[in-house]
Amino acid sequence: MKIFCWNCRGVRNPATVCELKQLLVANAPDVVFLCETKIHSNGFPRIRSRCRLKGCLAVNSDGKSGGLALLWREGVTVDVQNFSNYHIDSLVSTQDGEVIWFTGFYGQADQTSKHLSWDMLRRVKSTVKEGWIVGGDFNAILNNTKKDGGRRKSRRSMDEFRDILDELALIDVKPTNGWFTWSNNREGPNLVKERLDRFLISEDMFFKFTFINTRVVRQSKSDHEVILLNTIGNKSEEESCNHSLRFRYDACWAKEQEARDIIKRIWDGKNSDMLTKMDMVRKELGPWQYRRYKRMKIEINKLEKNIGKVMDGPISVGSSRVLKKSRDQLGKWYDKEEKYWAQRVRNQWLREGDRNTRYFHMQATGRKKKNSIDKLK
């Protein structure tokens, strides 16, 4: 089971919803928890639909602050137990029989109110009957190694956080990549980075899912990174077949000048019959399509690494500027990736304005019927 948590800092902006869809496609979570949505709950049915998720429970924002949402995909059953402005408590089960107790958590930011967050976790613990996972933005750190820059946190606040973990027998799962999950995006010595977002698991979960892991997922729209938990994260999985170079003629290539040039050059040749020319087109267009998509993925991966270097590396002059530039560029490449898949789908949805990437990806890559070249004009 995969659980995706993100303090998205608002989903009013269509670009944030677009990026959320991209992140869901790339990471394929079963359950999604969002905090600081900053919208009324009645705005979430549309977001759920656009992200092609099955279910949703949303908690109203308080004006332009707060707001939570729990969403889940087809094949997952979620029984919401309780919720407030700071948590959503649920029993989650999948078709393969996996059952967990998941609490999406948003900690109080005000130091004088943090005890309310810990009291809420105590109440939830008293009702838990399965393996327990708590994930989200805790607005707290366990020690000052979870912080870089700015004033040191008070020992009392960190002690209280550690004490509640000990009391409730919760284990902090360290990410396999990255470390800091939040930054204030300020320049130079004023830049502060902290590990505020995390997953905690009960001891029985730790022994039941021995391969469980979490990782940080880079994004471009919020000052918080995404965190992702996978209950079988380190377990070896069968590698899927690589169909990158499988050739299927795509009608949209007729709009691509590079593809048209390849076809024209081959078709204008004088020394080959039609079948040979068709085979030559196949051999050149397949790798061309692969290289085109690969270039896009290389750029996305490079920008994600740039963000990771700034978030996890030492603070230096220009760090915030590099972070902002990389996130802006990453957002643009995510948009290009969505358009790439949208272009490959023979469907009227794009004309209707719903550019759902997951749908496009499934349609573009999941067809059983193979396209082929019958003739070229």
UniProtKB/TrEMBL annotation:
Membrane-spanning intervals of the chain: none
Domain Endonuclease/exonuclease/phosphatase: 6-212
GO molecular function, one term: catalytic activity
Superkingdom of origin organism: Eukaryota
InterPro entries: Endo/exonu/phosph_ase_sf, Endo/exonuclease/phosphatase
Pfam families: Exo_endo_phos
Name of this chain's protein: Endonuclease/exonuclease/phosphatase domain-containing protein
Organism in which the protein naturally occurs: Gossypium darwinii
